[in-house]
Amino acid sequence: MEKTLAELGDYVTQKLTSISVEQEISFGDLTLTVTRENLIPLIRFLHDDSRLRFISFVDMCGVDYPARPERFEVVYHLLSPMRNLRVRIKTATDETTPVPSLCEIFPGANWFEREAYDFFGILFSGHPDLRRLLTDYGFDGYPLRKDFPTSGYVELRYDEERKRVVYEPVKLAQEFRNFDYLSPWEGTDYVLPGDEKAN
Hints:
The chain is 18% helix and 27% strand. It is an alpha/beta fold. The longest helix has 14 residues, at 2-15.
């Protein structure tokens, strides 16, 4: 299988001499890394070439690497039913530079790109309807970024008096928590509930 994937990678780089494509085989798939500007020509070639026919859009996701200048990596997975092969395509971007949308080639990419926008803030140029998909319209921030606080910024609840949902700043109540920082293997200074019956 690895030989087949290596041949596929060589075929792509030989055919697309005008595009810089890095290739590596990882986790049983061929990974092709390109710049944003070369993403559409690569995807269109993989889709249209009669030897390849990667016509099935399997998945697209974002990955956040905050320490990098281009902190986001957009990862696509395509399938060729004719060849029974998968390929992974990666491209990098930052918070303000959009990645070209694949909706024209793969209409099924629409919601995947909206999800990446909703959770990471990744922008897609040429997308027909780039808006939030799973969070509220007034949601502040992007919850899958690594710098987003795990508790969030606001919490919502239904207010019985106002008869509507209200948004409030997050309040973490700690008064009922007791941290003695002792190892349970060394024992505690007090009897744990239920242990009083052990004697």
